[in-house]
Write a structure and sequence with these properties.
7-stranded parallel beta sheet; 806 residues; 21 helices; disordered N terminus; globular; binds zinc ion; binds adenosine-5'-diphosphate; 34 strands; alpha/beta; 6-stranded parallel beta sheet
């Protein structure tokens, strides 16, 4: 095994983190059915070892009542714990001799919730590995991995609720297309529901899928009251084999080679990790689709991970157009019952294609055959609280565990993944050209100093700077007049990032965080008053009309967010007083897409292909395929090259290339205009002239020279408290407990990048090592000691392994 987690062995639950080592007894297959008498004879002193949702680095032994059967490993049980009752998961059995608690103090399991294990051995091994690698309590790991309802002890459904039209009503409908007399002609909604439900025939539709087909439970209930429809329980039947219903595209050479390599891995080695390194528009999705085909034909499941905001109706449609199969979508917007149903369908094999965000990787799967991580460089794959895992790493671990291929697809691989290729741990599959007839977009730098920018005349005579250069405005007009669409990218929502008093220099800051408040206002929609908002803690206030320190009226919104840019674009391209032709301007950010179906509406507008200007944050940067976008403008995208964070150039370059990749994805060549105040910035020049790959290599060389990740391995300890000095004191104490001769590089404790957030202070301590094993060996003992400090009981101390920001 050559993977990067080689230092962590897969030994069952004998991790050094568990100060109580469960003893695993090989039990006969039918052991859980064994009677007390037989059990007592065979295993006289057996206890059940249980992981409980408590933040303690140990598992707990319990006795089994003599009238009860033995719960199998992987079953949920209810137990007394102090004054509480908790639900835990059986993970092993222990011999009484090995238990440190005197036998008269041992408590008994009060209820066995599951007859059969709800998770398999592979899943339990994953939980154990996560606990060890991320130094997180096993019980809490399991808590993160299980859906809420399972954690709360809800029964695993063997049957799932469905809706259908009653057989005799359906028969009449099929024969004569009748409308039952119970539905009045004016009950449009009921009528619509009746007709929509008829389409699903006698099998009906799964209750969790209702909203996808525009069906609402309340109207179906009305139909049920009128004896037209019914809700019934359907026991799962194995799904029909997935069928290809759209003919595949004719592949280019590089695509064929990539698919061949994935299929070969599947047939020969089983596990292999691939980096599908394909420029934007190179047809990575077609590679996924065709690599999936033999897996689905073999009745195995395919898991496709997408970044948090990459999951769109378009993503779903591309898979649903190709395959007739049970496709499951799992995203953060699901409620608890939808999530539970999804979890069950992964587990029982009902779901054949699963498209999900980060946490889907923690689900149990009946028969997983392939894992794809789309846009694998995306930072949303890293969980930023509780169990701070990285989904791309876990994808590789699960691939190895299930012995199946894993494909990490991206146009802008992270430096970590490029290094894994160079170390021989990932196989690179390159797609260097755009698919079909599309050509690569042309990138240009535009000097944005204010003598080049276009000014907008106001009715009162003064002019405001649009922050778009004359050349950019001219080029935009040209593309719009040619009937094409233009995308303008700005990575900041709201109106402006700063409110400044020109008289005294006061700035509007968040009272709870170390950050400026963002100005939110909409002059286009005058009903909404302007307000200030903190993007870190959501604190809000109405916009002051005078400066709170000097009472001056001279307040200025400084900088530009999506709303202000949209406003400027309106003045330039949609003002009937200055131009004959008016173009729609579509603002796409978290504020405009919050409402249900708003994304869909925006898609529909864009997909008409009519000339329009799209203004968006990074929501619009990823994965989207808008064939008629031929021009991309980035007014301020180069800012990230000025940041002090050593990862910022990598992130900025990824974002620029992703956004640029939206241009010219069809027949017409795309153009990308990057406005900058530093046209000589060496990083920017390198990226624009040479492209992402050589740029990334130069960053890698620099990281190696400076001893930074991926050439070193990091663990970040954060301390959070109401008092800043206390956070430093705690981390200093922790630091003093590090073993002598630890050979790690230690930085800190220092204030976190954002020292104060939501009225709490944060400081951090960074441990770096050239050797991953060495780092974890130190952490194994030291972190437990730190967590056992008396102060750790009331102060938040967290550990982030392979952190992506510090
Ligand atoms: P990527 O994800 O690599 O950015 P997509 O998978 O979205 O690219 O593909 C871009 C476009 O190219 C899509 O419209 C897709 O249908 C098309 N395409 C992919 N492969 C081929 C091919 N072999 N021949 C013609 N068109 C293709
Ligand atoms: Zn002032
Ligand atoms: Zn705040």
């Amino acid at each position: 095994m050559v993977l990067f987690f080689c230092c962590i062995t897969l030994k069952n639950f004998k991790s050094s983190k568990l100060n109580q080592k469960p003893y695993i007894i090989e039990l006969p297959k039918n052991h859980s059915q064994m009677s007390y008498k037989k059990r007592k004879k065979k295993y006289p002193n057996m206890l059940v070892n249980i992981a409980l949702p408590v933040p303690l680095y140990k598992t707990f032994d319990y006795k089994v009542h003599k009238d009860s059967l033995l719960p199998a490993v992987g079953c949920r049980v209810q137990v007394p714990f102090g004054r509480q009752t908790l639900i835990g998961l059986v993970i092993a059995y222990t011999q009484l001799e090995d238990c440190q608690i005197p036998s008269n103090k041992l408590k008994t399991i009060t209820q066995i919730i599951d007859k059969n294990p709800i998770v398999d051995k592979n899943w339990l091994k994953l939980a154990s590995w996560l606990a060890t690698y991320y130094h997180y309590p096993l019980g809490d790991v399991i808590g993160v991995m299980l859906p809420t309802f399972i954690r709360e002890g809800k029964p695993i459904n063997v049957a799932s609720p469905h809706w259908r039209i009653l057989p005799e009503v359906l028969a009449a409908y099929l024969k004569e297309d009748t409308i039952p007399s119970q539905i009045s002609a004016r009950a449009y909604k009921q009528l619509e529901h009746y007709q929509n439900l008829c389409v699903f025939g006698e099998d009906g539709i799964d209750e969790t899928q209702l909203s996808k087909h525009k069906l609402t439970k309340s109207y179906l209930q009305k139909l049920a009251e009128k004896q037209v429809a019914e809700r019934f329980l359907q026991t799962p039947v194995q799904p029909k084999q997935a069928k290809m219903i759209e003919s595949p595209l004719h592949l280019n050479n590089e695509q064929s080679l990539a698919i061949q390599a994935i299929c070969d891995a599947k047939n020969k080695a089983g596990y292999q990790g691939f980096l599908l390194n394909g420029v934007t528009g190179s047809g990575k999705t077609e590679v996924y689709l065709q690599a999936m085909l033999p897996i689905l034909a073999n009745n195995q499941q395919v898991l496709i991970l997408v970044p948090e905001i990459g999951l769109t109706p378009q993503t779903y449609a591309r898979f649903a157009n190709r395959f007739e199969a049970n496709i499951l979508l799992l995203h953060s917007g699901l409620n608890n019952s939808e999530r539970l149903a999804g979890w069950q369908h992964c587990r029982d094999g009902q779901a054949q294609i699963i498209i999900g965000t980060r946490s889907t990787l923690l689900y149990p799967f009946k028969n997983l055959g392939l894992i794809i991580v789309d846009e694998a460089h995306d930072t949303s794959y890293k969980q930023q609280d509780t169990l701070r895992y990285h989904a791309a790493n876990i994808a590789l671990y699960r691939g190895l565990q299930h012995n199946i291929p894993v494909v990490l697809g991206t146009a802008t691989p992270s430096l970590e993944h490029i290094k894994l290729v160079q170390d021989g741990k990932l196989t690179e599959l390159a797609l260097s050209k755009r698919a079909g007839k599309a050509k690569p977009p042309e990138l240009y730098l535009v000097n944005a100093c204010n003598k080049n920018t276009t000014y907008i005349q106001q009715p009162d005579g003064h002019a405001i700077d649009s922050r778009l250069t004359n050349d950019v405005v001219k080029t935009m007009r040209k593309h719009l007049q040619a009937g094409e669409q233009v995308l303008v990218f700005i990575n900041r929502r709201g109106y402006a990032p700063i409110l400044l008093c020109n008289a005294c220099g006061w700035q509007a800051d968040c009272p709870r965080c170390d950050s400026h408040l963002t100005v939110h206002q909409s002059q286009l929609n005058t009903q909404q008053p302007s307000y200030l908002k903190c993007h870190h803690c959501d604190w809000q206030a109405y916009m002051p009309t005078t400066c709170p320190t000097c009472a001056s009226h001279n307040l200025d919104a400084v900088g530009m967010g999506t709303t202000r840019l949209t406003e400027n674009l309106h003045a330039l391209f949609a003002n009937p007083q200055i131009s004959k032709q008016i173009y729609p301007i579509i603002q796409i950010d978290r504020d405009t897409t919050r409402r249900k179906h708003s994304w869909q509406k925006i898609y529909q507008t864009i997909n008409t292909g009519k000339p329009a200007i799209l203004v968006g944050t990074q929501m619009i940067a990823k994965g989207h395929h808008f064939p008629n976008v031929t021009l991309v403008v980035m007014p301020t995208a180069d800012r990230g090259f000025l940041s002090a964070d050593f990862r910022s150039p990598e992130r900025t370059a990824q974002l620029i290339m992703q956004v640029a990749g939206r241009a010219g994805r069809d027949q017409k060549t795309g153009k990308v205009l990057i406005q900058t105040l530093q046209p000589d910035n060496p990083l920017l020049l390198n990226l624009v002239k040479n492209g992402y790959q050589p740029f990334a290599q130069s960053l890698l060389n620099e990281r190696q020279l400076l001893g930074l990740p991926p050439y070193t391995f990091a663990a970040l300890i954060r301390c959070e408290a109401k008092n800043y000095q206390q956070t430093l004191a705690v981390l200093n104490e922790a630091k003093s407990l590090l073993p002598a001769h630890h050979q790690l590089a230690i930085l800190g404790p220092v204030a976190a990048t954002m020292k104060k957030k939501n009225n709490r202070y944060q400081s951090q301590l960074l441990l770096l090592s050239k050797n991953r094993q060495q780092l974890h060996t130190v952490l194994n003992h030291w972190w437990l000691t730190v967590k056992n400090l008396p102060v750790a009981k009331y102060i938040k101390l967290t550990l982030d392994i392979d952190p992506i920001a510090w």
